């Protein structure tokens, strides 16, 4: 209410003032890729000179003429960027020409002059050296880098984001020294998310809307040689700019001029000049390949002098490097592979396993044919084994099960389990308990780092035409194309035992057309059309594609359809891969990730028009923008199968796994949505030294619709019976049949929404903005600026990339029975892809098949399970389901895989950012400017995903009674083995001590739960299933989530900067530098938009934006430092031209030294346990007291946090070990919250401090007057500083917990380049 009231009041005040004012003179304009020139003309005494004819002209054919008003003011808005000449002419005064005046995008440049008396035929010419200048007419804060600076300062990736990340208020990791991509960094600007940053390319929207990692990720990065300038607006840009509430990047392509100019260049990197990575050295890995060749050319000039100009450039990049995260993997491998070498026969394997794991007594005939096939399979990427032989530098870290080895942890890959071996020679079976009670030691496990260089190629073209159609009309067109595929041998998380290369098929087309029409010197219209096409698709690289028949043979199946029944929905290359196999601890995996095929294609069309009207003291801009987005996505994820939660290699050798996953249905989506923006902005120069910027912008961000209606949603308020949630599923009004009865019958049973999107529109998005710039001493050298404004944030479309899993269009199949013994070969033998999807929930009552329900096995120690409505009577190995005590027959239905779902709150609101700033900027002397400012932001209604179906603690009396009743009914159906239910008015009272409520020795004496924990199912200590303790029976926990606009953020900062330029002197040389320091604090609830990242191997596994961490009923506990918070950040760039001491020798002239420096605090991080789950109390309460399971394991949150140990402090937790990489924090300061949500805060720890210095030495030599050559030697991370990545912080991975295994940025790398200019 307050926000709406404040918005209306500000709008009313602003426009009342605007309409009431009648006295006008000059002001400034800031529109897109254009800038403005203006100023005051005075006579020698300082009096204003009216009637002076002012003409501005560029070498690119732009020419405008205006006259000064009664106050001597003049303004020429909407000028293309470039270098201009300004001519002043009036009778009685000498004509004055100012040359070399630069116009920057979205910057009002002020040029004040005094005319000398004399004859008009006398001309005074002043050639500008483009001095640094205080901006005196805008409240906006920004950093602009021109074409010369872009290529002078060393940048390892040559991405425009590298230099702009030095601006105050920008937060990002150190830029990488080596990349297998274009090197873009998506920063957080002034406390806003990385997706809150927008990119404009020659005035059109070029923002990547498909990623939740950042708007610049996987996006365009034009060659610096093709850009005339880049700019980053960080705060209070005016109402003509919108779409986002964070930073606004602007790129402007060079234009041709009346002279031909061009360049040819080549940049070279090679590993022979490099240092090695810290951890590669530690692990005995020789310096790997790190090569980059990047070359191209540019040329521009006139087609028709003063009328038609062209510019074009081409660049090709080829890179191969191991110094990127996706070029190495830290995995675990069984030590027995080291013993057997290349002989991987069953006999040799059995002998080696028994040698290292005595007590297992493995027979060769007991080894599964599937395990043998996989152990002997070759990887086409390396030519070696798919599961490689550990090298000599592999490190023993513990055992995967059993009694373990002295002083080393056990269960490093998963949990203990009882495994069934089948003897292929005799047909007999043998059960082996892999725990300590089984008498086996467990398989010793080695940790090894595996390196495989990652490759990248790019071909890009950037071209521009400018046509001065007439003196009052200019038409410009820019075309950009880039094809930049990358190849990632290892995908994140990096646990692959050998490469499974993903091809990033990145490609972009961008078209920007603008028409500037000057109706009069005071009325100018600019129209822009834009087309932006960005493809960020991923696919398993061609050599790794495997035909379905071969997949079936590898897994010993009778046919591809029998092995993978999901192939009837997708028979294309999406399923041409070997299934992924991954351990529960996610420290070992083989084969391509389950999202190896992910199509993401964005097409955005935009129309933009701005009318600029200069009226007296004010400049008004009125306009609007329309954008139409097309987002095609296809994320088949598990349709190629995944075997997960592999507990240990004993289970693997038996050909068994704990869980097998696939999906039935359709994942292809074609989303459509549009945006409309309207704005009115004004700059009112109230006096010569005070300018008021004000305006309002309206934003409508359309909700997505799928062209065939394939967008399922869930409305909780439609559910009348939480035990039958079928009534809550909603499809759009345009949902069409798919041709598959299993899906179409489920569509028919869903509720149809009254819209094509199932989400309500948010149309109340008015964003007023007001700012001022005041030069109190009227000298143009000291300015005070400040302001306040609202900025609406276009939500990332990344979330809709995950609705692939939504019923009724897709159904995930998860097979978990028999427990710990799901066979690889027949995992899906009981799953019928033609079964209607709705049947999983409702069953077929008319045929005697019950729907989804809670059941209980027989006896006093019987356990509860959720069974689905499929009516299946057998398990994956063909054995019968357990006996239903109510019927004496096997239970009907599978152990239920509850619905994973990405629901969107139909009342979703548009996120918005409030920005405010106050600062001063002062020109200490010519070409030396210092600035100090305070900038704050507040994010409201930010997106976050919440657990849709949070778990209840049955000890909490506020738990709904219907949950207790579920267990009571199942208990009675099982024959009431502990006696009849108690008398009582509530289900809770009736079931205590009967259906539930038994001792839990994990709790201390005196705690009532020690004698009766209502979450315990029986005297054996089984825990009631967590998904049966959610309100909605049938929704997965935590992977059924609801996208809401319920998060917020706050940011405060002190930002200091200085820039100086000393003009070249033969004796001292010349120096220019820029330095910025930020002291800031950013606090939020969650730091990233929900969504999935292509190729991350687990799009449905918790990640930074997957779901809010911790207790879903106490979101306030998540309030903490933002993931991108950097308390201190200093950055600087400098260029020094060496003196010549009066010598004219070409070998003495032209030497320059430049540097890039960045120093910053480490990033915050949390300690958590990913999806912890307690299914039993354990011996002496071990599962509750376990840090890994006890940190939220009663509720299975996405991220469960532990407690601080009794008496411990945060300082104790932050205490590092003697070797920080081995113990970055003190785990002894942690304690289990006994299954509850822990009291440890979010992001209470911080990573290591980061620092980096780059150097460059360049030599420019003039060959002729118009031709020059430049040689450069760049050294990135010159001092080879080791900047550590964050430590392992997931309790589920005991091997890496608390240790640091990777670096950020990279080691020292050298680059050489040669450039010819003309």
TrEMBL record:
The keyword Kinase does not apply. It is found in: Cell outer membrane. Residues 1-29 form the signal peptide. Residues 1090-1122 are annotated as: Disordered. Its main location: membrane. The keyword ATP-binding does not apply. It is a multi-pass membrane protein. Keywords: Cell outer membrane, Membrane, Signal, Transmembrane, Transmembrane beta strand, Transport. InterPro entries: Beta-barrel_TonB_sf, CarboxyPept-like_regulatory, Oar-like_b-barrel, TonB-dep_rcpt-like. Residues 252-1311 form the TonB-dependent transporter Oar-like beta-barrel domain. This is Carboxypeptidase regulatory-like domain-containing protein.
């Amino acid at each position: 209410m307050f926000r709406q009231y404040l918005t209306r009041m500000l709008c009313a005040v602003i426009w009342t003032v605007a309409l009431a004012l009648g006295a006008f003179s000059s002001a400034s304009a800031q529109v897109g890729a254009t800038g403005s020139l203006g100023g005051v003309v005075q006579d020698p005494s300082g009096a204003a000179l009216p009637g002076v004819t002012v003409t501005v002209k560029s070498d690119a054919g732009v020419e405008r003429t205006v006259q000064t008003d009664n106050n001597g003011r003049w303004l020429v808005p909407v000028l293309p960027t470039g270098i201009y000449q300004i001519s002043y002419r009036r009778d009685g005064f000498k004509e004055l020409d100012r040359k070399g005046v630069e116009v920057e995008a979205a910057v009002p440049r002020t040029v004040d002059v005094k005319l000398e008396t004399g004859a008009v035929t006398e001309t005074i010419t002043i050639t500008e050296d483009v001095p640094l200048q205080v901006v005196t007419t805008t409240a906006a804060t920004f950093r602009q880098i021109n074409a010369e600076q872009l290529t002078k300062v060393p940048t390892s990736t040559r991405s425009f984001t590298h230099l702009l990340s030095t601006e105050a208020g920008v937060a990002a990791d150190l830029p990488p020294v080596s990349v297998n991509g274009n090197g873009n960094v998506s920063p957080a600007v002034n406390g806003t998310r990385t997706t809150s940053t927008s990119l404009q390319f020659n005035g059109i929207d070029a923002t990547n809307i498909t990623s939740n990692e950042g708007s610049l990720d996987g996006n365009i990065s034009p060659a610096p040689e093709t850009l005339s300038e880049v700019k980053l607006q960080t705060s209070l840009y005016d109402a003509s700019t919108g779409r986002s509430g964070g930073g606004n990047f602007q790129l402007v392509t060079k234009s041709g001029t009346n002279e031909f100019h061009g360049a040819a260049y080549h940049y070279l990197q090679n590993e022979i000049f490099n240092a090695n990575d810290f951890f590669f050295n530690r692990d005995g890995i020789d310096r790997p390949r790190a090569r980059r060749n990047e070359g191209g050319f540019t040329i521009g000039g006139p087609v028709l002098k003063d009328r038609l100009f062209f510019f074009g450039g081409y660049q090709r990049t080829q890179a191969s490097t191991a110094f990127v995260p996706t070029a190495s993997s830290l995995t675990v491998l069984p030590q027995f592979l080291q013993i057997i070498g290349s002989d991987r026969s069953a006999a040799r394997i059995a002998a080696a396993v028994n040698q290292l794991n005595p007590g297992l007594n493995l027979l060769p005939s007991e080894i599964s044919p599937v395990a043998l096939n996989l152990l002997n399979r070759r990887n086409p990427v390396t030519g070696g084994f798919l599961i490689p032989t550990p090298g000599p530098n592999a490190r023993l870290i513990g055992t995967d099960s059993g009694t373990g080895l002295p002083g080393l942890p056990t269960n490093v890959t998963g949990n203990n389990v009882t495994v069934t071996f089948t003897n292929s020679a005799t047909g007999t079976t043998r059960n082996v308990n892999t725990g300590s009670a089984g008498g086996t030691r467990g398989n010793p496990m080695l940790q090894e780092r595996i390196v495989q260089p990652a490759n990248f190629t790019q071909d890009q073209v950037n071209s521009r035409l400018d046509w001065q159609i007439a003196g009052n009309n200019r038409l410009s067109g820019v075309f950009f194309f880039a094809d930049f595929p990358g190849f990632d041998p290892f995908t994140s998380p990096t646990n692959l035992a050998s490469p499974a290369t993903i091809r990033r098929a990145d490609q972009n087309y961008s078209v920007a057309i603008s028409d500037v029409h000057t109706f009069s010197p005071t009325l100018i219209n600019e129209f822009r059309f834009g087309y932006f096409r960005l493809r960020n698709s991923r696919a398993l690289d061609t050599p790794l594609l495997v035909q379905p028949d071969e997949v079936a043979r590898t897994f010993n199946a009778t046919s591809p359809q029998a092995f993978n029944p999901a192939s009837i929905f997708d028979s294309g290359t999406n399923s041409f891969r070997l299934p992924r196999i991954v351990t529960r601890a996610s420290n070992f995996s083989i084969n391509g990730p389950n999202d190896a095929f992910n199509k993401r294609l964005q097409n955005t069309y935009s129309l933009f028009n701005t009318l600029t009207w200069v009226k007296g003291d004010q400049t008004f801009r009125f306009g609007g923008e329309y954008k139409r987005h097309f987002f095609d996505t296809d994320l088949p994820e598990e349709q190629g199968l995944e075997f997960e939660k592999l507990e240990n290699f004993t289970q693997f050798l038996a050909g068994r796994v704990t869980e097998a996953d696939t999906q039935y249905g359709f994942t292809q989506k074609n989303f459509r949505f549009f945006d409309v923006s309207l704005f009115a902005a004004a700059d009112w120069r109230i006096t010569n030294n005070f300018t008021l910027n004000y305006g309002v912008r309206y934003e409508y961000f359309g909700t997505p619709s799928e062209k065939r209606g394939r967008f399922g949603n869930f409305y909780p308020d439609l559910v009348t019976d939480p035990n039958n949630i079928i009534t809550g599923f909603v499809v759009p009004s345009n949902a069409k049949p798919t041709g598959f009865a299993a899906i179409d019958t489920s569509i028919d049973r869903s509720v149809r929404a009254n819209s094509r999107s199932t989400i309500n529109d948010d149309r109340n998005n008015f964003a007023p903005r007001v700012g001022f710039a005041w030069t109190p001493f009227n000298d143009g050298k000291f300015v005070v600026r400040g302001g306040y404004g609202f900025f609406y944030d276009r939500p990332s479309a990344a979330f809709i990339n995950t609705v692939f899993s939504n019923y009724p269009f897709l159904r995930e199949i998860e097979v978990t029975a028999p427990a710990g013994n799901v066979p690889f070969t027949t995992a899906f033998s009981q799953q019928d892809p033609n079964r209607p999807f709705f049947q999983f929930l409702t069953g077929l009552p008319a045929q005697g098949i019950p729907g989804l329900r809670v059941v209980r096995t027989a006896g006093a120690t019987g356990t509860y399970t959720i069974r689905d409505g499929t009516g299946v009577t057998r398990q994956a190995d063909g054995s019968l389901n357990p006996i239903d005590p109510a019927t004496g027959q096997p239970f009907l239905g599978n152990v239920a895989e509850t619905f994973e779902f990405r629901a969107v709150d139909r009342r979703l609101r548009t996120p918005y950012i409030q920005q405010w700033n106050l600062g001063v900027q002062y020109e200490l002397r010519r070409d030396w400017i210092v600035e100090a400012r305070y900038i704050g932001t507040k994010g409201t209604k930010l997106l976050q995903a919440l657990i849709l179906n949070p778990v209840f603690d049955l000890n909490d009396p506020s738990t709904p009674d219907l949950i207790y009743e579920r267990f009571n009914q199942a208990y009675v159906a099982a024959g009431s083995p502990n006696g009849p239910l108690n008398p009582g008015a509530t289900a809770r009272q009736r079931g205590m001590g009967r259906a539930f409520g038994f001792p839990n020795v994990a709790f201390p004496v005196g705690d009532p739960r020690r004698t009766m924990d209502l979450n315990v199912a029986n005297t054996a200590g089984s825990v009631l299933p967590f998904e049966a303790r959610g309100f909605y029976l049938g929704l997965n926990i935590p992977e059924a989530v609801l996208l809401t606009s319920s998060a917020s953020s706050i940011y405060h900062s002190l930002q200091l900067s200085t820039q100086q330029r000393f003009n070249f002197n033969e004796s001292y040389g010349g120096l220019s530098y820029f330095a910025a320091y930020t002291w800031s604090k950013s606090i939020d609830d969650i730091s990233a938009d929900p969504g999935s990242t292509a190729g991350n191997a687990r799009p449905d596994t918790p990640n930074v934006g997957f779901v809010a961490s911790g207790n879903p009923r106490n979101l306030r506990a998540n309030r903490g430092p933002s993931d991108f918070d950097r308390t201190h950040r200093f950055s600087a760039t400098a260029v020094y031209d060496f003196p010549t001491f009066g010598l004219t020798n070409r070998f003495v002239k032209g030497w320059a030294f430049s540097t890039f420096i960045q120093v910053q605090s480490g990033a915050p991080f949390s300690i958590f346990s990913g999806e912890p789950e307690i299914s039993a109390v354990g011996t002496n309460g071990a599962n509750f007291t376990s840090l890994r399971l006890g940190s939220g394991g009663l509720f299975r949150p996405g991220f469960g946090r532990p407690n601080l140990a009794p008496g411990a402090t945060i300082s104790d937790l932050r205490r590092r070990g003697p070797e920080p990489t081995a113990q970055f924090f003190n785990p002894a300061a942690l304690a289990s919250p006994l299954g509850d949500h822990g009291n440890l805060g979010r992001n209470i720890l911080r990573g290591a401090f980061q620092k980096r210095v780059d150097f460059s030495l360049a030599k420019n030599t003039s060959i002729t007057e118009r031709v020059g050559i430049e040689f450069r030697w760049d050294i990135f991370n010159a001092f080879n500083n080791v900047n550590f990545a964050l430590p392992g912080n997931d309790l589920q991975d005991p091997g890496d917990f608390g240790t640091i295994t990777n670096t950020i940025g990279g080691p020292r790398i050298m680059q050489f380049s040669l450039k010819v200019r003309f």
